[in-house]
Amino acid sequence: MKILVTGGGGFIGSNLVLSLKNSEYEITVIDSFLSGNIKNLGHFKGEIIKEDISTFDLNRKFINKHFDVIVHLASITDTTFSDDREMIGMNVDGFKNVLNFAKVKGAKLVYASSAGTYGRGKSPMQEDQTPEPLNAYALSKKMMDDLAKKEIENKNIIIVGLRYFNVYGPGEEYKGKSASMIYQLFQQMKAGKNPRIFKHGEQKRDFIYVKDLNEANLKGIKSEESCIVNVGTGTATSFNQVVKILNNNLGLNRKCEYFDNPYNFCQDETQADTFMAENRLGFKAKYNIEEGIKDYCSYLLNK
Ligand SMILES: NC(=O)c1ccc[n+]([C@@H]2O[C@H](COP(=O)([O-])OP(=O)(O)OC[C@H]3O[C@@H](n4cnc5c(N)ncnc54)[C@H](O)[C@@H]3O)[C@@H](O)[C@H]2O)c1
Asked: Is the distance from the beta carbon of residue 206 to the nearest atom of ligand 1 less than 6 Å?
């Protein structure tokens, strides 16, 4: 199976690419390396193309090459990116470019949407509830979902939209301040500091381990029908609880330092309703928060 992975040098993309080692898959990666890092790709043997997906001429580059599936993960992922127009332009133009290419090639398209599209909407979040994007990043994902829905109605190609919730795990270290809270808190605590979280740490997130994401993406790659579904665990965990689990794993007893949240676009709680993912895609997360953090801590401690 020939697969093109955009954003394959990033956190989730590189995890996916490295998990598809099987000789059944021939993988090509496109990444501008804006936030990703070539080091993420380790011993990956396939082709790596350094290009900006929002402008790259895919049809010309791959005039003689067929792809069965395109996994589109390339995106500006820094939610505090300074220029809203640029972020929306690049994310949405990138999606349009990939969508057009998938149609030309008759390839299946699997793409990354986000729980950010739900904003402060009701929780557990269901795929058909009204989107309430709170920032440009979330708006760009909502716009991608809208374009995908139109194509799904037209039944031209199979499209699988995956609304990832809060992903954490190996490979995110290059994201810097955009890496997960679990990574940030681990680093602070390991460095002997108290974990710093927004007042009063009772905000909740549906944290999903990247090893589960590999499985969700694989289900998308193999799906025979179009859908847009949540990819979360179905459980929301507070930041205070995350600190407690990290303390347990690190043998520490650090106290939280609370400070005012400077951003007005943060979600209070995210929690995926997982019914559609289970029923349409056959995906169910295997790692609960304790298991995921335990596995991640042992990776970070042995790095
Ligand atoms: N990590 C999460 O918690 C999370 C949650 C919801 C959705 N997502 C989505 O999952 C996808 C992967 O995110 P990630 O966490 O791996 O972030 P990441 O920043 O590590 O990966 C994004 C990759 O896309 C590349 N990229 C950015 N703009 C590009 C462009 N115009 N052309 C080519 N490459 C470009 C970056 O260099 C990077 O390698 C993104 O679409 C993101 O929006 C992530």
From this structure: no
Q: Residue 220: CB within 6 Å of ligand 1?
A: no
- In this prediction, residue 134 carries a pLDDT of 92
Q: Among this protein's residues, is 287 annotated catalytic?
A: no
Report whether residue 29 contacts ligand 1, using a CB cutoff of 6 Å: no
Cα–Cα dist 229/273, whole Å: 9
Q: Which domains does the chain have, with CATH numbers?
A: 2-167+208-234+269-286 (3.40.50.720), 169-204+236-266+293-301 (3.90.25.10)
Compute CA 227 distance to the chain's CA centroid, rounded to the nearest angstrom: 17
Active-site hit among 111, 118, 137, 296: 137
The model's pLDDT over 174-202, given as tens digits with 9 standing for 90+, comes to 999 999 999 999 999 999 999 999 998 99
pLDDT tens by residue, 89-126: 999 999 999 999 999 999 999 999 999 999 999 999 99
What SS3 class is residue 178? helix
Asked whether residue 80 carries a pLDDT value surpassing 90, the answer given is no
Give 176's contacts (C-beta < 8 A, 6+ positions apart): 35
Alpha-carbon span 271 to 150, nearest angstrom: 26
Tokens linked to 58: 């895919």
